[in-house]
Amino acid sequence: MLLLWLLLLLLLVPLLAILWQQRSRGTRPCWLISLQHRVAWGMLGWAAAWQQWRLDWSTLNVGQSQQQALMWCLKKAQGSCCLPREDTDMRTFWNHLPLTQTSHTQEEESEETLPSPSSPWYHGDASLQATLLGLITLNKAYPEVLAPGSTACVTPTSPWPCSVPWLGHALGRVSPDGAKDPRTLLLEALISPGLRVLEARTAVELLDVFVGLEADGEELAEAIAAGILGTLLPKRAAELKEALEQGPRGLARRLWPKLQVVVTLDSGGQAEAVAALRVLWCQGLAFFSPAYAASGGVVALNLWPERPQGSYLLPPGVPFIELLPIKEGTQEEAASTLLLTDAQREKEYELVLTKHTSLTRCRLGDVVQVVGTYNQCPVVRFTCRLGQTLNVRGEVTDETVFSVALAQAVGQWPGAKLLDHVCVESSVLDSCEGSAPHYEVFVELRGLRNLSEENRDKLDHCLQEASAQYKSLRFRGSVGPAKVHLVRPGSFKVLREALAACSSSSCRPPEMPRVIRLRHLAQLLQKRVIS
């Protein structure tokens, strides 16, 4: 009987999809919208229940699940394989396949990019489970947020890591199927005052959307009033103008009074964008990420949308995950990797992924700290990326240390809100001639148009307080003071577009680098300095 119901649902969805496409936005009857939504959620419920059962079984039988994931990678490996595919145990696997490391050299930085959802990297258990279970848990945490017409995605790529054909119907998105133009997506969202969920691929991209909305708000309002989407909406255009006139703080709630949650995909370098959105445009809204996308693809899923700081489950399926211990007090790695069952609470590990496309054990550089367990699997939070470190005189200033110091410094700049930043070692720009090597720091701020020398010096003082090694080098004169440059609004959007243009993927890389090692990218920001 259950199989018959599932078969019926599978038969109905394509038919309903055709009916949907045959009707314009203004003429779709309510019964069709409601029926499509119910059918899609019926399918989602069945699929999510199956994935929840698989997840519970795999996390209760971690050793067996990881062995099966390893066998799957071996069977799917393309080309020649140096390992026996039938009876390979973990020890043989470790002995035959040495660790490789993600490179962060200047030549290879432009090639680092997170794959698009159509990439083979996303075809693992983690991405599918993150999508299906994430939707169910989000709906439970915030009832009615996924009702028909309550969701809008304002970026061409969705934050949900697995592409499911009927996902748009389950989410009740207001955007037309296949819409890829960012301006059209934003207009569709702006003319829908009843939104409860706002989606964007990443937080930095959503930040770009709001900054662009403020800059182009008058033009967008005129387009809405003129009926650019097929319907004249002068009242909504007036509401948009009024909301923008009151400034950025709380803008999302003024545009969409019923808005409850923002959904973005968590990945490296997103924390500052989330903080800026929380303080300004998305004040009072909850944030939810269905997954964590590390340097090598989706590796962890979020089952707890109500938790303010991202906690992610490392599942034992595909991709095959190992943990490389980080020595306490350093960023040096241990001699060998561990399996998920060997993870210890409060300890830090670097993630190691094995992909079936080339059968390599790749160190991702993403560091996690174990904060709990789900059955027998570790629940982690991501702390930093090993490749995002500064080193001009043998010191190691990691991403977290620098970000904390910068946040403390910005907190002492009257009226300033940090939107984005990157660092450049002085040798990249040849700016250390006649002076000690130092950090060049480019920041984009809201609320402050000029930086005094006193404010610039505060960052160097905060860095010395945060790092004893940096303080010692500064005291001896081996390292010069950090130099802070304020860039004009929109500079980091230009930087991200430049990163996308020089990457091997057609989609923008969601990871935001905090250390730039390519001279032409550093010079791009240097040309946009205003203070």
UniProtKB/TrEMBL annotation:
Residues 1-17 form the signal peptide. GO terms for cellular component: endoplasmic reticulum. It comes from the Eukaryota. Keywords: Signal. InterPro entries: GH3, GH3_C, GH3_M, GH3_N. Residues 313-385 form the GH3 middle domain. This is GH3 domain-containing protein.
